[in-house]
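Priority: medium. Attachment 1 of 2:
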């Protein structure tokens, strides 16, 4: 009997240290769709109609935490985008990954490759989020994931107020003056209760990709920009209404040049049993000065059929119009998108 008790005590002594660190969570999402796109090419003999199978930011990841003391917890996450259709044979692109410390009273500090606070502030306004062709990043700037992130996320003050702040060292990547701890700054401040969400977010000297209407008609693929974003969401039972207003500009514009952005996005969703109806209108203007500008309007509808809490089938129908000024030498481009897909989360 004493031998059995001794063996049990030794076993418990080995198991208890292992139990202190919770097992990591493996999770993921597969979202594949069959999409039809009909785009004006404005080129004689060139057909802009195409069928595509898109992977829509499918992903897999691992995350977890380890309690260090009664007040401190270590947190970590590593996530990859996966190509469900293996388009081009490329797989495992980097998404968020970080390690950090969470204090129960003072908030969380994380280091790594993290979505910018301005990007996170969008909340639920983009009802086509993650869609390869329709995600808000296809016509609005600021949807950026930041390398070299030193990020702080506050706890909820008074259960409703929050802050999300990232400092980004430049590491002399662009020029010799980028050698400070905060060469780029992104921050968001929010209020959220059971029905209302409000946020103000800003970027300062953040390198962001420019959407297709800019790269096609006006300018570069990316640049350092300053931005301001206001978001609101109001939920009334099964109906959710969201809106976003954004302004952005080049951080340092050469004399006589600019590339100013003004964007508005409004959306709504309505849950009815297993169905979710979605709608979105987005408008954006990029003005490069001296008559060079482009307007983009996106109007879309979608419907989800929720098979379970984790799996849904869906359809999207979207019209987009890009209108460059005559000074650019380009004609208007009208595009229609129709897609059918399925998503499962695990």
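Attachment 2 of 2:
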């Amino acid at each position: 009997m004493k031998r059995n008790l001794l063996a049990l005590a030794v076993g418990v002594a080995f198991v208890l240290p292992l139990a202190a660190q919770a097992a990591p969570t493996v999770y993921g999402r597969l979202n594949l769709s069959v999409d039809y796109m009909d785009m004006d090419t404005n080129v004689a003999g060139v057909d802009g109609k195409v069928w595509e199978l898109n992977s829509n930011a499918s992903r897999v990841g691992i995350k977890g935490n380890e309690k260090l003391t009664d007040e401190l917890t270590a947190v970590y996450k590593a996530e990859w985008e996966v190509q469900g259709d293996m388009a081009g044979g490329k797989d495992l692109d980097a998404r968020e990954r970080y390690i950090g410390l969470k204090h129960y009273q003072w908030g969380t500090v994380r280091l790594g490759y993290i979505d910018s606070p301005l990007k996170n502030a969008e909340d639920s306004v983009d009802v086509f989020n993650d869609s390869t062709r329709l995600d808000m990043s296809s016509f609005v700037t600021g949807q950026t994931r930041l390398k070299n992130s030193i990020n702080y996320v506050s706890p909820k003050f008074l259960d409703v107020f929050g802050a999300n702040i990232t400092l980004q060292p430049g590491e002399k990547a662009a020029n010799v003056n980028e050698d400070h701890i905060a060469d780029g700054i992104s921050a968001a401040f929010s209020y959220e209760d059971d029905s209302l969400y409000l946020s103000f977010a800003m970027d300062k000297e953040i390198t962001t990709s420019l959407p297709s209407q800019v790269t096609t008609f006006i300018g570069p693929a990316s640049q350092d920009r300053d931005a301001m974003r206001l978001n609101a969401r109001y939920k009334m039972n099964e109906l959710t209404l969201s809106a976003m207003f954004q302004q952005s500009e080049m951080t340092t514009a050469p004399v006589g040049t600019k590339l100013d952005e003004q964007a508005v996005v409004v959306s709504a969703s309505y849950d009815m049993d297993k169905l979710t109806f979605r709608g979105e209108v987005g408008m954006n203007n990029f003005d490069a000065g001296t008559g060079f500008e482009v307007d983009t309007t996106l109007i879309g509808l979608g419907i989800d059929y929720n098979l379970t809490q984790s799996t849904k089938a869906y359809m999207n129908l979207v019209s987009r119009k890009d209108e460059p000024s005559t000074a650019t030498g380009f004609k208007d481009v009208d595009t229609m998108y129709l897609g059918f897909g399925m998503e499962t989360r695990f």
